[in-house]
Amino acid sequence: MLNFKRLAGLCAFSAACAVSSTALAQADAKPQALTIVVPYGAGGIVDNTARAFAQKLATELARPVVVENRGGAGGMIGMNAVARAHDENTLGFTAVSPVTLSPHVMKTLYDPLKDLAPVAAVMYSPVYLVGGPKFTGKNFKDMVDQAKADPDGLSLATAGVGSLGHLMLEQINGQAKVRITHVPYKGMAQMVPDALGGQFTLMLVNASAPVNTLIQEGKLKLLAVGSPKRLPGWPETPTFAELGYPMANMTSTFGFFAPASTSAEFRQRMNAVINKVAAMPDISKPLTDALNIMSPGSVEQFASQVQREYVDNGKIVKAANIRAE
C-alpha cells in the first residue's frame, strides 16, 4: 500500500530541489557580452576611444563589454557586421563616414539609413593635413606648388576609400587642379608609423595625442586643419576654409550605432549611459586635451545629423564625380 504522506513529502522535496537547481543555474549564468565593433584596425583614435568606453560601459551595464576590430573598405566591413547583427548585444563605434559618405562612393551590403540606427554622438574631431619626412615643403602653398610641378609626385594617405579624408583629398585635387595620389589604409593606426617611415608624402588624420606630440617634436609638419576655426593648440595653422578650400574644411564626427532591428527603448537606454560615460573626466579630458570636441546629445539629434550629412555628402560626391579606385 502506498504511503501517501511519504509520497507527498518526496514530491515536495523534489520540487524544492528543482527550484533550487533553477535558482543556482540562474545565479551561475553570466550576462551576455556586449560587443562594440570598431570598423578600423587596432590602435587608432576610434579603437582607443572605443576601448576606453568599453571599460566604463561594462561597469555601468553590469555586463562584459568587448571590442572587436573589423577593418577594411573605409569602415564598411565592420558596419555591415553591425547592420547584420539583429540583436541588442552589438553596437558599432565609428566615424560617421561609413554611414553618411562611403555608400555614395561604392556599393555597400547594407542600407545605411535603413539597416543602422544612430544611438549617440560622442565627439567631433578636427582633421589634420600633415607632411611626413618625405615632404620637403613648409606649408600648404608649397604642397600645391610641388603637386603642380610634379604631377603624381606627391602621395597622401587616408583611412580608406570613401573615407572623409578621401573626400577632402578629392576636393583639394579638384580645386587646385593637381593630382596627389591617394593611398588608402584600413584605418589610421598604421598610417602614422608608415608616414614616419616615408611610405607616402602626406596624410589626412584626426587630431590625437600621439599625432600632436609628433608635430610638436617636428617629426610631422602640420599644414592645415579641418575645423570651424583655428585650433587653440595650433593658432598659427590655417583652416582649409581660410586657405580658400571651404569644401575641404571638414571634421569627423564619431558615435555609436546599433542594428536597426533593435528597439527604440534599447537605443534610448544606451544613449543615456553613453552620454553618462562621455561626461566622465577620465574619458573626456584625454579627448579634449587632444583638441577633440565632445558632442553629446539625444538619439534624435544624432539621427538628424546623420541624415543631414548623408544628403550633403551625396551632393558633394556627385558634383566631384568621386568613385572608388
Question: Could you characterize what this model shows?
Answer:
α2 (about 45-60) crosses α10 (about 265-280). The protein is α/β, with parallel strands linked by helices and about 325 residues long. It is built from twelve helices and ten strands. It has helices spanning about 5-30, 45-60, 75-85, 95-100, 100-105, 140-150, 165-175, 190-195, 210-215, 265-280, 280-290, 300-320; strands at about 35-40, 65-70, 90-95, 115-130, 155-160, 180-185, 200-205, 220-225, 250-260, 295.
Integer-rounded radius of gyration: 25 Å
Give the overall form: globular
User: H/E element string?
Assistant: HEHEHEHHEHEHEHEHEEHHEH
- Alpha-carbon distance between the two ends: 88 Å
**Model regions low in confidence, pLDDT < 50 over at least 5 residues:** 21-27
What is the average per-residue confidence, as pLDDT, rounded to a whole number? 90
**Helical coverage, percent range:** 40-55%
Describe the protein's topology.
Blueprint: H1 4-28, E1 34-38, H2 45-61, E2 65-69, H3 76-83, E3 90-95, H4 97-100, H5 102-105, E4 116-131, H6 140-149, E5 155-158, H7 164-176, E6 181-184, H8 191-196, E7 202-206, H9 209-216, E8 221-226, E9 251-259, H10 264-278, H11 281-289, E10 293-294, H12 299-320
Parallel strand pairs: 1-2, 1-3, 5-6, 5-7
Antiparallel strand pairs: 3-9, 4-7, 4-8, 4-9, 4-10
Helix pairs in contact: 2-10
Q: What's a quick, concise take on this entry?
A:
The chain is α/β, with parallel strands linked by helices. It contains 12 helices and 10 strands.
